[in-house]
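Progress against Task 2.4 (sequence-to-structure conversion) is shown through the following example record, which the project officer requested during the mid-term review.
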Amino acid sequence: MFRPSIKKRLSSVSAEMAKLAEGLRVIDEQLLQVRDEAEDSRLRALVSETPLAAAEHRDAARAVTALRRDREAMASRIQDLETLQDELLDQLTKGR
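Structure tokens generated for the chain above:
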């Protein structure tokens, strides 16, 4: 691969990693909020013992699970991009 194309690819990878890092920060904030809400709904469901409270807790628990799954996918993509970035940097330094 030619140096300019490696540099262009590195720039692209870096930009995507920055976007994903920001997305990860947002998901972490959301996860804290939703996890607290899920815990509150769990306690309300235990105390009230109503079907509505139980359903609210299930919904909140599903939201936490979905956010965790999204976070794991995003973190995995960042890790893949870091590996790619390392490989591209190796190619760039070997070409000197």
